[in-house]
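2024-03-11 09:14:02 INFO worker-7 job=invfold-0412 stage=load source=structure_tokens
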């Protein structure tokens, strides 16, 4: 037992947060080992040490070993036998207390400390009328938030430990008789191929299993809302839960999914249909308006009425920069303000936004650096991009806005047309885990149009998406095959 203690101290760097306590019961040597910060001292005292103290006073039968007595009477909800030294180390770092009895008999008792916050409200994806709960950094709590919504024995979980040092618990969640087996296997294979020191957040997984790493648009969705994940699982998608991360990944992700929110299904269809059209309009404005303005003021003057053209020319008369430089200057300034607002404490962020938006904007116009119409164009474009909560989509909009601005500067309206064709062709060529990114528009799926841009009554949608589920699955059926 002394040799095992020395080996543990060497392998853990003799860290002070590892506690070694030796006990002798009726001539039997027992050593209790646990990590002070990962375990609950109250649980150790109440459920382990108190029970051991009771055992000392018991009159055990001659044929009853101390190990069997403790293994069968300790009130822990998760007790397991340890057979190998790596399992012993893994258990120590996962919040287990280790009982070593006469060196050869080792058991692990789960006594994890609660190191996470309670169930918080959603912050990045505000809920208007839906549930307010959000994921936390605790794997089991996140899983519980989904299971309490989907009470089915067909909701299956496959576990992985990824990271040679962090050994982070990762789970893929899916509904067995709805999710496609090919998709499950592809995700599983990608997770098994990950070779890295540590997984700190689900963003690591998102980057490593993404199909097209050079693409701006997200092909994997990250959400903090359990109701969003539950809806995705019912559609035949797969969820990836990562320990220590409050964001769950949804696979696959289509472009139309980025225009939907969980709250869409808690309100009247006529209102949501209007809001979805607004989102599409905002997407177009965010990308194309600056490029179109540059094109008509630089090359294609005949695209504007004479009065409007004279008005724009008068405003730009004192501006020393070309339209592209003016637009880039304002766009970069807005990005700096947005980033500072994001990083600053909430009490200071509002003040920074007001200072940047009002004072700097007014000063720039008064100094003749930019024209008033350019501030309006960039502001409308930037605000339209912020209508979406997915960070990668906001970044994709920003990059394509810059690409179209450069093309408009060189070729005018023709450059905007070329940029539009490039954007459409790029989106059409994208796949999310083998599924077309523009589903259900390309390829066109008539059944999925009922919940694409225009929201119809959900009860009228009979079949599930054939690109996500097994053939001819009807909504509401209870599948018991397999």
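2024-03-11 09:14:09 INFO worker-7 stage=emit residues=482
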């Amino acid at each position: 037992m002394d040799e095992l203690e020395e080996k543990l101290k060497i392998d853990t760097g003799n860290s002070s947060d590892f506690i070694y306590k030796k006990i002798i019961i009726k001539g039997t040597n027992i050593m209790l080992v646990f990590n002070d910060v990962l375990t609950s001292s109250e649980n150790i005292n109440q459920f382990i040490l108190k029970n051991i103290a009771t055992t000392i006073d018991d009159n055990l039968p001659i044929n009853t070993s101390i190990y069997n007595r403790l293994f069968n009477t300790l009130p822990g909800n998760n007790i397991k036998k340890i057979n190998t030294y790596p399992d012993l180390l893994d258990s120590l770092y996962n919040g287990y207390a280790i009982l070593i009895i006469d060196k050869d008999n080792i058991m692990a008792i789960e006594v994890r400390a609660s190191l996470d916050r309670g169930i918080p409200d959603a912050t990045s994806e505000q809920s208007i009328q839906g549930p307010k709960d959000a994921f936390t950094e605790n794997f089991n709590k996140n899983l519980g938030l989904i299971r309490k919504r989907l009470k089915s024995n067909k909701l299956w979980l496959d576990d992985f430990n990824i990271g040679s040092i962090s050994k982070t618990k990762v789970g893929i969640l899916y509904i067995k008789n709805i999710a496609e087996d090919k998709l499950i296997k592809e995700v599983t294979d990608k997770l098994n191929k990950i070779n890295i020191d540590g997984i700190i957040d689900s963003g690591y997984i998102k980057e490593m299993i993404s199909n097209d790493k050079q693409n701006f648009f997200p092909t994997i969705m990250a959400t903090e809302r359990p109701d969003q994940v539950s809806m995705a699982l019912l559609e035949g998608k797969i969820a990836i839960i990562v320990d220590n991360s409050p964001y769950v990944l949804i696979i696959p992700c289509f472009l139309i999914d980025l225009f939907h929110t969980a709250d869409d299904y808690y309100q009247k269809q006529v209102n949501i249909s209007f809001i979805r059209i607004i989102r599409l309009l905002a997407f177009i404005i965010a990308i194309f308006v600056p490029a179109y303005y540059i094109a008509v003021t630089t090359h294609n003057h005949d695209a504007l009425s004479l009065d409007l053209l004279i008005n724009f020319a008068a405003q730009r008369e004192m501006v020393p920069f070309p339209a592209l430089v003016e637009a880039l200057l304002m766009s970069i300034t807005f990005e700096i303000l947005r980033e500072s607002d994001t990083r600053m404490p909430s009490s200071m962020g509002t003040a920074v936004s007001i200072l940047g938006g009002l004072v700097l904007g007014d000063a720039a116009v008064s100094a003749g650096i930019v024209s008033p119409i350019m501030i309006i164009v960039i502001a409308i474009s930037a605000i339209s991009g912020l209508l979406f909560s997915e960070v990668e989509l906001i970044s994709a909009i920003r990059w394509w806005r810059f690409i179209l601005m450069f093309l408009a500067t060189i070729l005018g309206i023709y450059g905007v047309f070329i940029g539009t064709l490039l954007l459409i062709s790029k989106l059409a060529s994208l796949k999310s885990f083998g599924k077309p990114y523009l589903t259900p528009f390309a390829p066109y799926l008539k059944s999925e149009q009922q919940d694409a841009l225009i929201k119809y009554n959900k009860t009228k949608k009979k079949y599930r998406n054939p690109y996500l589920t097994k053939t001819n699955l009807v909504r509401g059926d209870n599948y018991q095959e397999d």
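2024-03-11 09:14:09 INFO worker-7 stage=report msg="Residues 269-298 form the longest helix (30 residues)."
2024-03-11 09:14:10 INFO worker-7 job finished
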